[in-house]
């Protein structure tokens, strides 16, 4: 069946009359002949004008075809092959049970009630053939309709709800495709119809399919669940564990929250009003990595009563500094200040840094792979073209680099522009070493950066008193982010997005001839936060929900915390499965499932359901190709005609 996406364009086909009229109006050009005198030419009577006729029929046909092809292409013709469905007068009846085996079905006695309802319907069905599809985040099992109900009965006895969240979309498609198109179909959905699972874009079902919803009785008992667990460092070898707990019941509850590991046990009481999300905090010693769990006492839904996680000191941050020219004092001074600020330790430190200097011969891609953060102090001008490519490849992997200017700052910033890493434009230098009596000062910090949290309120006073004697002026681009700006609004520190990584470029050197920042109290926290701004200190922790582990070589089936290949894995149940809200199966769900009919496995000779459709073939690309061919042929024919006409007009005059 032929359909049009923009059928109103078909009215433009009336314009086909225009080329015909133009061909009728067009007259053959008269041939101009030159005579020395017209005295000897007799006057003659002009012949009567003959009836207008169409000329150049091939050229006219090409122009008509060109116009028609363009109009039809805009109309978007589509050939839709109707799918065949239920044959009239069929006597075969089939029932398929769509069973929700997601984690939320384990609440209270819902799973036992669901199996009882399924057994009861199976015993009383009139269908000659029965099948089954069970699902959680994906289809777990499918049984094509058959006359033997024993496999379904065995399934009911053995299966238990998984720990994954539910996604019924693929399961509905699978169940519909299992039906025989010639059979009278009945789809029985056994589920708690949880909002988080069913309020999504679902596929439709054929309009004549009988839908039955079996909802097990909901549990009235209260449920308290753990929503998340976060760990925050509070000092050297100590961390704070924040356990978030939600009361899913309709009454206030007081619940003990425990923190467990092989060597530690802590417990605190938490009071929660109805529907409230509350927090309880524990402080634990962190000397070595260890798996822990936060737990709640048993209730109507035990699966959200535990959360598995790792508590571990962060890995050492490896910082590589590129020093190709040790004779340049600004590079050496900047490296010294950087190294001192990062490697100094105190009792409140959580992150540890290891700073290594590289000379010109060691700046290569294979060695850079080992660095977490790369520092280029006053040495950017010494990078060769190939090393700029290595730097871009390093940053594209999500890494972090920090670049400081030196005496050859023009070459450095122009190289940043030329390599495409910086969109801002280099303008020149502001100030010089003789202007110390009128230094520049910082005026603002980007509120969305980590620096704004570090230098909040009183902590920012020392930073804003820093004296900068000279800096590189840049014409700021919106593609680059300013982290710190001077009082005049010009950037002092910018963030450049390079692939998946970040390059931080300072417009002043960390040298006393440029600024007194390295001598200030604010220098140490500035450098440390700058290094950690784009670095994930929890990079060895991998956090997943159960359904997200299916792509792993060995999928995880239950929540747990384990170590694998040097990484700490935390696998937990999706908190969305704790939500007790359900959808309306009387009005809302049937309307949703009937929006987009689908059917497959067509059988020739069967009837067609209204609105049902099969494969579609779009013709507009072919029409555009025809139009292009017509343009080429029309140009060719017009050129031939013009050449012939020019030859006739340019023939020699008769004597």
What does this entry look like structurally?
By secondary structure, the chain is an alpha/beta fold. The protein folds into 4 domains: 2-38 and 53-81 and 619-649, no CATH class; 93-218 and 581-593, Rossmann fold (3-Layer(aba) Sandwich); 224-313 and 541-578, Immunoglobulins (Immunoglobulin-like), CATH 2.60.40; 317-533, Rossmann fold. An 8-stranded mixed β-sheet has the order 16-15-17-18-24-23-22-20. A hairpin with a 2-residue loop joins strand 26 and strand 27 (567-572). Helix 2 packs antiparallel against helix 15. The radius of gyration is 39 Å and the shape is flat. The two termini are 69 Å apart. The model is unreliable at 83-87 and 596-613 (pLDDT under 50).
């Amino acid at each position: 069946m032929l359909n049009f996406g923009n059928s109103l364009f078909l009215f433009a086909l009336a314009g086909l009359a225009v080329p015909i009229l133009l061909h009728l109006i067009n007259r053959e050009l008269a041939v101009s002949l030159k005579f020395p005198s017209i005295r000897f030419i007799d006057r003659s009577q002009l012949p009567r004008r003959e009836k207008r006729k169409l000329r150049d029929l091939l050229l006219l046909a090409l122009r008509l075809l060109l116009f028609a092809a363009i109009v039809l292409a805009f109309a978007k013709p589509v050939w839709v092959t109707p799918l065949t469905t239920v044959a009239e007068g069929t006597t075969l009846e089939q029932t398929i049970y769509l069973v929700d085996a997601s984690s939320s079905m384990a609440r209270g006695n819902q799973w036992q009630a669901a199996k009882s309802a399924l057994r009861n319907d199976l015993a009383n069905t009139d269908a000659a053939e029965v099948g089954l599809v069970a699902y959680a985040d994906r289809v777990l099992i499918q049984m094509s309709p058959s006359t033997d109900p024993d496999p379904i009965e065995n399934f009911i006895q053995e299966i238990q709800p998984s720990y994954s969240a539910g996604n019924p979309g693929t399961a509905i498609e699978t169940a519909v495709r299992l039906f025989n198109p010639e059979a009278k179909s009945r789809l029985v959905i056994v589920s708690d119809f949880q909002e988080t699972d069913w309020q999504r874009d679902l596929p439709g079902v054929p309009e004549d399919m009988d839908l039955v919803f079996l909802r097990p009785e909901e549990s009235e008992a209260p449920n308290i669940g753990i929503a998340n667990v976060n760990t925050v460092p509070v000092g050297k070898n100590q961390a704070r564990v924040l356990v978030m707990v939600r009361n899913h019941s309709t009454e206030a509850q007081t619940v003990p929250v425990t923190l467990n590991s092989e060597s530690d046990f802590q417990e605190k009481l938490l009071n929660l009003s109805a529907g409230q999300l509350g927090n309880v905090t524990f402080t634990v010693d962190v000397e070595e990595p260890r798996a822990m769990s936060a737990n709640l006492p048993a209730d109507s839904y035990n699966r959200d009563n535990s959360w598995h996680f790792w508590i571990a000191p962060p890995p050492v941050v490896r910082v590589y500094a590129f020093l190709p020219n040790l004779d340049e004092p600004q590079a050496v001074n900047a490296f010294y200040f950087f190294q001192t600020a990062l490697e100094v330790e105190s009792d409140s430190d959580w992150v540890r840094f290891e700073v290594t200097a590289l000379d010109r011969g060691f700046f290569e891609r294979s060695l850079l792979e080992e660095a977490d953060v790369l520092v280029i102090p006053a040495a950017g001008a010494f990078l060769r073209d190939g090393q700029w490519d290595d730097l871009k490849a390093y940053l594209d992997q999500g890494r972090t680099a920090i670049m400081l200017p030196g005496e050859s700052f023009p070459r450095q910033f122009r190289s940043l522009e030329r390599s495409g890493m910086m969109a801002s434009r280099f303008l020149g230098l502001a100030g010089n070493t003789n202007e110390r009596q009128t230094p520049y000062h910082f005026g603002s910090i980007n509120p969305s950066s980590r620096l704004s949290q570090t230098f909040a309120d009183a902590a920012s006073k020392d930073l804003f008193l820093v004296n900068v004697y000279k800096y590189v002026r840049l014409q700021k681009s919106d593609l680059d982010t300013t982290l710190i700006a001077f009082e005049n609004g010009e950037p002092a520190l910018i963030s450049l997005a390079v692939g998946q990584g970040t390059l931080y470029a300072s417009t002043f050197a960390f040298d006393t001839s440029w600024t007194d920042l390295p001598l200030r109290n604010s220098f140490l926290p500035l450098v440390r936060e700058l290094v950690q701004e784009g670095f994930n200190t929890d990079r060895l922790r991998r956090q997943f929900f159960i359904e997200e582990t299916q792509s792993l070589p060995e999928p995880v089936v239950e929540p747990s915390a384990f170590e694998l290949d040097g990484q700490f894995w935390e696998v937990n149940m999706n908190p969305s499965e704790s939500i007790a809200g359900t959808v309306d199966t009387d009005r809302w769900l049937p309307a949703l499932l009937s929006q987009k009919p689908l059917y497959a496995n067509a059988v020739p000779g069967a009837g067609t359901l209204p609105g049902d459709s099969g494969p579609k073939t779009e013709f507009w690309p072919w029409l555009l190709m025809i139009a292009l061919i017509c343009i080429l042929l029309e140009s060719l024919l017009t050129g031939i005609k013009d050449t012939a006409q020019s030859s006739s007009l340019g023939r020699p005059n008769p004597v």
